[in-house]
């Protein structure tokens, strides 16, 4: 075989558009906030999608997550992927959010509510050649160490929760609002015969 063989790619999924109604936008943004260390804020409510006024939005995000889980990542349909926690993020001009990942979650998502372009940046955990850092030349998908994903209002970005990501400094003159959520599987994993069965 001649040519490039792609090994073990990591998938990130951008959803179709979801048009927020003004009543939903009001529920999302009418929040009590907690400050974070780099000037951004997160909502005190960490189960935001359980609000009765957001059932349409939650249903949309569940459909998008199921598509990513089953059609893209290949999880069996016998497993449901359910939204666990969900919270709001507020990035005023000049604020950022530190690089992090989401423990105790399978797939995480960010839904962009409003704001100028202040992209989500995802990071490659390991350098291409292990601990060796060679000088940059031609930038390709194989040697890139980060990727910026533009935030488009009304779209969600879904990714494996182990993927390290951040929001770089908001250089615009407007506030950036988003909703983040985590998920976990519901069903049976493992094998009864191999003594690894886990019913969730």
List the SSEs and their pairings.
Blueprint: E1 13-14, H1 22-29, E2 33-35, E3 41-43, H2 55-72, E4 80-91, E5 97-100, E6 107-114, E7 120-123, E8 146-149, E9 156-160, E10 165-167, E11 176-186, E12 188-189, E13 198-199
Antiparallel strand pairs: 1-9, 2-3, 3-4, 4-11, 5-10, 6-9, 6-11, 7-8, 7-10, 12-13
| The number of domains | 1
The N- to C-terminal Cα distance equals 43 Å
Unreliable spans: none
CATH topology: Jelly Rolls
User: Count of DSSP E strands?
Assistant: 13
Rg over alpha carbons: 19 Å
Sequence of secondary-structure elements: EHEEHEEEEEEEEEE
Largest sheet report: 7 strands, antiparallel
User: How do the strands line up in the largest sheet?
Assistant: 1-9-6-11-4-3-2
Proportion of strand residues: 25-35%
Helix content: 10-25%
The CATH class assignment is Mainly Beta
* Average pLDDT taken over every residue: 92
Would you give an account of this structure?
With 200 residues, this protein is of the alpha+beta class. It has a single domain (13-124, 142-199), classed as q2cbj1_9rhob like domain (Jelly Rolls). The chain contains two helices and 13 strands, in the order βαββαββββββββββ. The strands form three sheets. Strands 1-9-6-11-4-3-2 form a seven-stranded antiparallel β-sheet. The chain has a four-stranded antiparallel β-sheet with strand order 5-10-7-8, with no helix packed on it. A two-stranded antiparallel sheet has the order 12-13. Strand 2 and strand 3 form a beta hairpin.
